[in-house]
Design a protein that fits this description.
single chain, 478 residues, alpha/beta, TIM Barrel, eight-stranded parallel barrel, 14 helices, 36% helix, binds 6-O-phosphono-beta-D-galactopyranose
Length: 478
């Protein structure tokens, strides 16, 4: 077995983290536009009002809005077959509530998709990637309000119809399982009405958050169902921040704790979106946490009818779980216990290539639908070398080891994998910290944490390496 001939090699981005042009051509404000910068040690803040003299990294980001032709040409030079990007809801519906879409916003994505087509690149579009209109935060506390479902459906119907001949692959919500964690309040469920302060200290209401998550499940299922009925050529996927958890030891307490965390953070969401129903332990979970979900007649049916065609996920690290152990580490959305066998990135995310093979098998065994890795990569500081170039051998090493394990999962284990789009293929703003210094790209962008920089683009060593990887369909990883 080999990787598919039409394997979707590419890279991934999100509108709020790279487009900039936050208030241009009729665009409204998204929840991301209300987030300041931060760092590994100082959390970013969300603010009710846009404060003067405060840096909001999404406002300019790396200005893909004006550089898209240059950037897509660079992706094409690397041989990308696929480009994961998101549509900024507020470019299409500035407050989320208009009855007519904003033509200038629609026209922008026409230009982007046309440019992809010119270069033979297939777009993979995330419909909602941490970009809810801020006006909906004010109106209905983000996804807690059931009316958000209808606004989302209107948005989806418009973009489906407009781009039906240009886009085949769609993901409904980025990392929908962020809603299972308090940190998800800001970017994911957007349940931050009236709150200004650090994103780590939002007053958390599990009741509101899980209600919001239920609304996202219903919204996702409704639009998947609608797309299947009207656009049979579309393929729709879910998107999970796969938080792989190992037991810290073989003590049964640790094994059970790891199982609990796998359920609560991963399977709870993907069971709904892939199997079309809440898992059997959901009821006990709600009871234990004092959650009373309000469901309307038809909700459970639509979850059944709107299951996804493929499963996508982000994979950065693994964590350990157990009872009575101490040394903690951070990670993508969730932290955990330090694994003594692994090293971590400068931001404390534990690097575990074999964990990717393990995760691919765990997921495929459970669902048996095609998988796609839509985020993976190393956030690192890049320093210019004396010869003026960026020699990012550490990034190449990280990606090489992950691709090796990904191939083992396909070639030795038989997992059905559609593609691989590493995160931040061009340097962009970090979602968790708002930094530019945490770089993932094959392409360096001259933009810094204080907002300065001329936005010029340069190829790093990893650019040439990844080009060779794609050209050989993953055979040459040297
Ligand atoms: C995921 C998000 C992305 C992205 C990535 C890397 O959670 O889907 O938006 O940012 O993580 O995380 P960070 O930017 O915090 O390093």
């Amino acid at each position: 077995m080999k990787l598919r001939k039409d394997f979707l090699w590419g890279g991934a981005t999100a509108a709020n983290q790279f487009e900039g042009a936050w208030n241009v051509d009729g665009k409204g404000e998204s929840v991301s536009d209300h987030c300041t910068n931060g760092s590994h040690t100082v959390p970013k803040r969300v603010t009710v009002n846009i404060e003067p003299d405060t840096l909001y990294p999404s406002h300019e980001a790396i200005d893909f809005y004006c550089h898209y032709e240059e950037d897509i040409a660079l992706f094409a030079e690397m041989g990308f077959k696929c480009f994961r990007m998101s549509i900024n809801w507020t470019r299409i519906f500035p407050t989320g509530m208009e009855s007519e879409p904003n033509e200038a916003g629609l026209a922008f994505y026409d230009r982007v998709f046309d440019c992809c087509k010119k270069h033979g690149i297939e777009p993979l579009v995330t419909i909602s990637h941490y970009e809810m209109p801020y006006a909906l935060v004010e109106k209905c506390n983000g996804w807690e309000g059931r009316e958000a479902i209808g606004y989302f459906e209107t948005y989806c119907r418009v973009i489906f119809e407009r781009y039906k001949d240009k886009v085949k692959y769609w993901l409904t919500f980025n990392e929908i399982n962020a809603g299972t964690m308090p940190l998800g309040n800001v970017l994911s469920t957007s349940t931050v009405k009236g709150y200004s302060g650090p994103i780590t200290q939002v007053p958390d209401s599990p009741q509101a958050r899980y209600q919001a998550l239920h609304h996202q499940f219903v919204a996702s299922a409704r639009v998947v169902k609608y797309a299947h009925e009207h656009y049979p050529q579309f393929l729709l996927g879910n998107m999970i921040a796969f938080c792989a958890v190992y037991p810290f030891t073989c003590h049964p307490d640790d094994v059970l704790e790891a199982q609990r965390q796998m359920r609560d953070t991963n399977w709870y969401c993907s069971d709904v979106q892939v199997k079309g129903e809440y898992p059997y332990y959901a009821k006990a979970f709600w009871e234990k946490n004092g959650i009373e979900l309000k469901m309307e007649p038809g909700d459970l049916e639509v979850l059944k009818e709107g299951t996804v065609d493929f499963y996508t996920f982000s994979y950065y690290m693994t964590n350990c779980a157990g009872v009575g152990h101490e040394e903690a580490v951070s990670g993508n959305l969730t932290g955990g216990l330090k694994n003594p066998y692994l090293e971590a990135s400068a931001w404390g995310w534990q690097i575990d290539p074999q964990g990717l093979r393990w995760s691919l098998n765990e997921i495929y065994e459970r669902y048996h639908i095609p998988l796609m890795i839509v985020e993976n990569g190393l956030g690192a500081r890049d320093e210019r070398s004396e010869d003026g170039k960026f020699h990012d051998s550490y990034r190449i090493d990280y990606l090489r080891r992950h691709i090796q394990q990904m191939k083992l999962a396909v070639e030795e284990d038989g997992v059905d994998l559609m593609g691989y789009t590493p995160w931040g293929c061009i340097d962009l703003v970090s979602a968790s910290t708002g930094e530019m210094a945490k770089r993932y790209g094959f392409i360096y962008v001259n933009k810094f944490d204080d907002g300065t920089g001329d936005l010029s683009r340069e190829r790093k060593d990893s650019f040439y390496w990844y080009k060779k990887v794609i050209a050989t369909n993953g055979e040459d990883l040297d």
